[in-house]
Amino acid sequence: MFRDVIITWAVKQVQYLKNRGEAMPKMKTHRGAAKRFSLTGTGKIKRSNANTSHILTPKTTKRKRQLRKSVILDKTNEKSMRKLIPYL
Q1: b/e per residue, 5-14, with b = 16+ CB within 10 A?
Q2: How confident is the model at residue 75 (pLDDT cuts 50, 70, 90)?
Q3: Contact status, residue 49 vs residue 70, Cβ threshold 8 Å
């Protein structure tokens, strides 16, 4: 009896979401990736450079200055990143 009620509720929930145009299950955003990447105005994925947190004394001033800038993510990694941050 109780099992039938739950199954009926689940079927109704799926039908309700399909009628609203939403599919189940929803994709979840990878929160670690969402904190490290952002989108540009044209939809490209932007990331920050590595090698800027420690051991900075051997690096030249020019190199450290250039590492401050953010860069566009390479196309080879873009497909996998879009899966991690689908709604960003």
Answers
A1: eeeeeeeeee
A2: very high
A3: yes
> 24 pLDDT exceeds 70?
no
Query: What's the CA gap between 23 and 73, in Å, rounded?
Result: 29
Q: Tokens for 79?
A: 């497909």
26: phi > 0 → left, psi -120 to 50 → alpha, else beta; which? beta
* H/E segment holding residue 4: helix 2-20
pLDDT for 70 beyond 70: yes
Distance CA 78, CA 74 (A): 6
Exposed (0-12), middle (13-18) or buried (19+): which is 23, by Cβ within 10 Å? exposed
User: Which pLDDT band, with edges at 50, 70 and 90, does 46 fall under?
Assistant: very high
